[in-house]
Task: structure prediction
Amino acid sequence: MEKQRLDKIIASTGKFSRKEVKALIRQGLVLVNGSPARSPEEKYDPEGVELIVNGETLTYRRYTWLMLNKPAGVLSATEDGRGETVLDLLPEELQRQNLFPVGRLDKDTEGLLLLTNEGGLAHDLLTPRRHVDKVYYTRVAGCLAEEDCRAFLSGMILEDGLQCLPAGLEILSAANGESEAYVTLREGKFHQVKRMLAQCGKPVLYLKRVRMGNLTLDPELSPGEFRFLTEEEVELLRKG
Result:
């Protein structure tokens, strides 16, 4: 693999920014193949170098995968002149890694959004042929009933003629003129959850994605917070 700057290799692990790496090198806290690093500009094969930083052994990440709890009001885009994007929520060193959102969430929808720079796997997760399940928690106006569950399961045809794949609707509660439910889709058409529930006469009041494929939103992440996926979680995505 092509050699890269030491500070870039270490920053790719998500543990330290490049600025922090430079400070650690000055303090003698970065060991490269067992010897203290001399400069952040030194170049190494990132897949062959052994790194110990501040006493911790680091593993190079060829690709970056992040789990973000997207807050409402933020756009699922890399750049957009209309407002803040999900990349604006990341520190500068991650903004430089050519990350992009895997799919999209509406501006007012919260929850699980993956960010990566691995195009192949991202495409596999989004391709209609693979039918990766996406689960949403929703609160709606009106009382959901079993007839709504049957409508979702049968594959609804929306007013504009869109034929939806069979979907899941699990009612959690229905009282006082509102309902809570989980919606499971195997596709991701524009505003699809909102459009399907609106056709049932139950407009969405709140929407949050809680699962994508085998990956569930980390409950420790507050809106706007992110973390790196573990190697095990990335493998779960590969397996679908």
